[in-house]
Amino acid sequence: MDSTLRDATEELGSLQPPFNVTRRGFVQTSLGAGFAAAVLPVAAQTMITTDTQGLTAGEVQIPTKDGQMPAYRAMPAGKTGLATVLVVQEVFGVHEHIKGVARRLAKQGYLAVAPELYARQGDPTKYTDTGALMKEIVSKVSDAQVMADLDAAAAWAAKNGGGGKLGITGFCWGGRIVHMYAAHNLDLAAGVAWYGPTARSYHAGDKTALDVVTRIKAPILGLYGGADGGIPNDTVEKFGAALKAAGNTRSEMVIFPNTPHAFHADYRPSYRKEAAADGWKRLTAWFKQYLS
Question: pTM score, two decimals?
Fold first, then answer.
């Protein structure tokens, strides 16, 4: 392993090859259909629906160090050598909204892969109570496990229609993972983080995005709600300033005024059409600039 990657793993803390992923196997071996139970009922009237016409889309199995990880893959049919975008789930797992995001990216010409990153701990889509989900599954998922699984997803993509540059996007829990993965994988070409906490972690002992900000070299676009009660604006601004202070001048943090958390989630009451559309337009331009 080269010195830059070794330094990055040390910065993340206890994340040493082979990443010490617990060899407990996978509790969830396939993806569920529809939406996560905790988000029901969905606001169907505001949902953006993306079909599979012209795409190869569906569930795949990605090999990891301790078993097969289920994931959703969407890509232009018959194409190879594509830029890859890793799609990182909300706390609710890989349900229909995340699959829809993958299809939207595939329509833009990318190979989009959304791995179920909680699969060792349980099936998040079956939980009806978010508090229980956070305690029983999310809090048990370490950054070390996630970084190794995203590496596995990227490696799988490179052999299955990918081969171009690597990008990542994620939402809430997954938005934070965008920052952490950028610090971990120095080959990442670009990332877009939707309302990902910068000053907190979810697993005991893991670092925050602010802790590893000096390791982030890829251009990161952060999309945040100015009225997000769980992510104070000053923590986002501090993170953006720290990126620039570390020499990452291409990154940008955008805060939409009077906008709540999860404003891109078109199936929930938090959805804000104008901010979501603006954010998606920015994502599209960001990936076009850095992944082409």
Answer: 0.91
